[in-house]
Write a structure and sequence with these properties.
This protein has a single domain (10-79), classed as lambda repressor-like DNA-binding domains (434 Repressor (Amino-terminal Domain)), CATH 1.10.260. It is 62% helix and 0% strand. It is built from five helices and no strands. The protein is globular. InterPro entries: Cro/C1-type_HTH, Lambda_DNA-bd_dom_sf. GO terms for molecular function: DNA binding. Residues 11-57 form the HTH cro/C1-type domain. This is Helix-turn-helix domain protein.
């Protein structure tokens, strides 16, 4: 039995490294904490505008392109037959 780990979202890595909460990020860009949670889990696809807002809120550390590519990669991994 293979236990494959899910990839770690770059926004999650940023938050943990800087000891920030989802609520902190959410307030800084004007969305709900649940919205940030969904983005980090890969269950919510952020708009390009929201991904750019996250990039600005993280002072360019978390790139909008990486946020958008994460979901593409994550959804491909989950759609492969097991």
């Amino acid at each position: 039995m293979s236990s494959k780990k899910s990839p770690i979202h770059p926004l999650y890595q940023y938050r943990v490294f800087r000891d920030l909460t989802q609520e902190h990020i959410a307030k800084s860009i004007g969305v709900s904490r649940a919205h940030i949670s969904g983005i980090e889990r890969g269950t919510h696809v952020p708009s390009k505008k929201l991904a750019q807002a996250i990039e600005q809120a993280t002072i360019g550390v978390v790139k909008a392109e990486d946020i958008l590519l994460f979901h593409d990669h994550y959804s491909e991994e989950n759609s492969k037959p097991k």
